[in-house]
Write a structure and sequence with these properties.
The complex is a heterodimer of chains A (about 300) and B (about 200). Chain A is mostly helical. Helix content of chain A is about 65%, strand content about 0%. Chain A is rod-shaped.
């Protein structure tokens, strides 16, 4: 059996190996027809190869250096040489990043806006507590230990939840919120208001006394207008002359009225002159106070200008 | 090494060398890709030139083939020569070009999707002044597309039967059959044109 065309062709190129090659060479050694066919095959292949070479030599060819540079430039910007499984790494990394991002957003939504600031995003503060307007006392702060108790914490809307509610009407801008944990004590202005109120209350408490003193002074002045003002005042005055002296004298010093102070001293002198001695109905403490008041009234009259 | 993937005329040494180069590229020595470009771009360009008429299309297909090979270098099977794999990539892209041209009514594709030959007149013109090259181009133009492609891969590019089978996606026995018939026709055609060989 003679060698066929593919066998001669493969023998020519060295593709035929092992036992097949040994059998073909053995046959060629004893078969002149096949040996001639083998020579013709090799000559034919050389002629064809020369024809291809002439074609390439005659035809215009690209600038190979430029083509090489173009390929290298195109490959320089692309990831390369990764096996098939490794090409999934960027996609897997993108999925991982997305999962982490979603987890972060969910965590932010669960933990509330007080934690959001850690991630650099603007914290959306819920109106946990309205700031007290000026002059209005802030509500009392939650007692220690109650800050984490559920009912005391208003619901907090997470940014993710808001983002997942398309079509939802835009929320009305809330007034600047104050976090419950950061509830500020009354402001300095509010504190000043309170203190002013306290002072005013204290002043109001003195007002009846002042009004009483003023009424008494008016009455004393009307009495002074009388020719015998001191005596008339003593007559109209209730109780003992010593009591009337104390009332007028203290009132004169309270309102810094020198005329009233003089009238009080007249009452004191009248009391002494009437009895000639110190009033006997007064105990030593009252006498000491009456004497001290008289000294104060005398010092006052001699002090401030009329 | 399996017999069917053996190179021809000592190309097995080239295959091993290329496998080493590819391994080094994959390990990070990307600059070595220039070695593969220098070694194969001219042969690949002419192989694609025999498939496509427009040199600009040839340029694009060759560059895209190198780039795609670069991107998918991890899929390269070192049991075969790099050129075989590279040609397969370029051939597929050339077929895409031909399909687009078919849609536009420029060319027709055969049923087995073998690429048509570049216009024989163009080859003759290119080989003007070279009698053998002109005869070769004209005779190749008479071959069926599948036989012509197998003939070109075998005698112009030096691929083994196994490599041709792998490149065109056909059984090796089919390659043998196509080459046997193609050589018979080429012998007759070339002799008819006065071309002789011992």
């Amino acid at each position: 059996m003679h060698l066929d065309d593919p066998t001669l062709d493969r023998l020519r190129t060295g593709e035929l190996e092992g036992p097949d090659r040994a059998r073909a060479e053995a046959h060629l050694a004893v078969c002149a027809r096949c040996a001639a066919a083998q020579e013709e095959m090799e000559a034919f292949a050389r002629a064809v190869a020369r024809g291809y070479a002439e074609e390439r030599a005659a035809g215009p060819e690209p600038d190979w250096a430029a083509r090489r540079a173009a390929v290298l430039a195109a490959t320089a910007s692309r990831r390369s040489a990764a096996p098939a499984w490794a090409r999934w790494i960027p996609q897997m990394a993108a999925v991982l990043v997305a999962v982490v991002a979603v987890g972060v957003l969910v965590e932010r939504g669960v933990r509330g806006p007080e934690e959001a600031g850690r991630f650099g995003a603007p914290a959306e503060q819920a109106p946990l507590q309205r700031a007290a307007p000026p002059g209005e006392a802030a509500p009392p702060e939650a007692p220690p230990g109650s800050r984490d108790e559920g009912p005391a914490r208003p619901p907090v809307e997470s940014p993710l939840g808001r983002a997942q509610a398309p079509g939802r009407p835009a929320p009305v801008p809330a007034p600047p919120a104050v976090h419950r944990d950061e509830a500020a004590p009354p402001s300095e202005a509010a504190g000043a208001e309170v203190q002013a109120g306290v002072r005013e209350a204290e002043a109001n408490e003195e007002r009846p006394a002042r009004e009483a003193v003023a009424g008494e002074l008016l009455r004393q002045r009307r009495a002074e207008a009388d020719a015998d003002a001191g005596k008339a005042a003593a007559r109209d005055a209730p109780t003992s002359p010593l009591d009337r002296y104390f009332a007028v004298g203290r009132a004169a010093l309270a309102v810094e009225d020198s005329a009233a102070a003089g009238a009080a001293l007249s009452l004191w002198r009248d009391t002494l002159s009437a009895d000639g001695v110190a009033p006997t109905d007064a105990d030593s403490a009252q006498l000491g106070s009456a004497t001290a008041l008289a000294d104060s009234l005398a010092a006052f009259i001699g002090g401030p200008p009329e | 090494m399996p017999d069917e993937v053996a190179g021809i005329n000592g190309d097995d040494a080239d295959r091993r060398e290329e496998a080493d180069v590819v391994a080094r590229i994959r390990a990070g020595e990307s600059h070595l890709y220039g070695i593969l470009i220098d070694r194969h771009q001219r042969r690949l360009w002419w192989a694609v030139r025999r498939l496509l008429n427009d040199p600009d299309d040839v340029d694009d297909v060759v560059q895209e083939a190198f780039v795609r090979a670069w991107e998918h270098l991890g899929d390269y099977d070192p049991a075969y020569r790099f050129y075989t794999w590279l040609y397969t990539i370029a051939r597929n892209r050339a077929l895409n070009v031909l399909r687009r041209q078919k849609v536009r009514g420029f060319v027709s594709l055969s049923a087995d999707d073998a690429p048509p030959v570049a216009h024989p007149g163009d080859a003759s013109t290119r080989a003007e002044g070279n009698e053998l090259a002109g005869a070769l181009a004209e005779c190749r133009g008479t071959l069926p597309e599948d036989q012509r492609e197998a003939f070109d891969l075998r005698h112009a590019d030096g691929l083994s039967y196994a490599e041709i089978a792998r490149a065109i996606g056909a059984p090796e026995g089919t390659v043998m059959s196509r080459l046997h018939r193609a050589r018979g026709k080429m012998r007759d055609c070339l002799r008819s044109k006065g071309v002789t060989w011992p």
